[in-house]
Amino acid sequence: FAGYVRESNLPLLSTHPVTGNPMPMLANEWAFGADNKTLYFRINPKARWSDGQPVTADDWLFTLKMMRSKEINDPWYNNYYSTQIADITKFDEHTLAITSGTEKSRQDLLESLPISPEPSHAITLTANWVKEYNWKVLPVTGPYQLDQVKKGKSVTFKRIENWWGDDERYFQHRFNPARLEIKVLRDLNIAW
Question: 75-83 and 57-68 are packed helices; what angle lies between their axes, rounded to 10 degrees?
């Protein structure tokens, strides 16, 4: 289930399944820094959260703060965002740079730095964050929004109407179902 939820928020870039080349997701332009540590991104100005709010560089600044915070109670993310990502720099609403903690090859930078954002306008970090947000449905950047959770039975995602990415080249013909339902089958024989 966590994998499906993570897929709901697009990263800045992905890897093309056939060519292995970078493929635009939330960013429509990118460039490598001369320091072998930094990637620069321009966010597609069409990109929107599922609640209609624009995706901006502030969302990545918030993501870095959030993933480093003790409030999320997640040592793995705390460590990764503190050691692997040195900094995020905002140049304007749609331009940012993400800097690695160490020098890396271009391929390694492409695999580690184009992270997914968190919706800065929809999250407030508090001491009670885990309890408050554990089952809260947050806005997403991808084509599917969590719709129904029937604990122990199923999870349903619904397609976002008029999703911002519908006309983008790399998203066309990919997200066709109106609904995705993941069922919990507790008996392996029934699952088979």
Answer: 120
For every residue of 129-144, DSSP letters joined together read HHHHHTTPPPP-SSSE
The amino acid present at 98, given as its one-letter code, is: I
Spatial distance between the Cα atoms of 160 and 179, rounded to a whole number of angstroms: 10
Q: Is the full-model pTM beyond 0.90? A: yes
**What is the rounded CA–CA span in Å between residue 89 and residue 70?**
22
Q: How far apart are CA 58 and CA 79, in angstroms?
A: 21
Predicted pLDDT of residue 158: 96
From the list 47, 51, 80, the residue with the least C-alpha distance to 66 is: 80
The C-alpha angle with vertex 122 and arms to 101 and 26, in degrees rounded to 5, equals 55
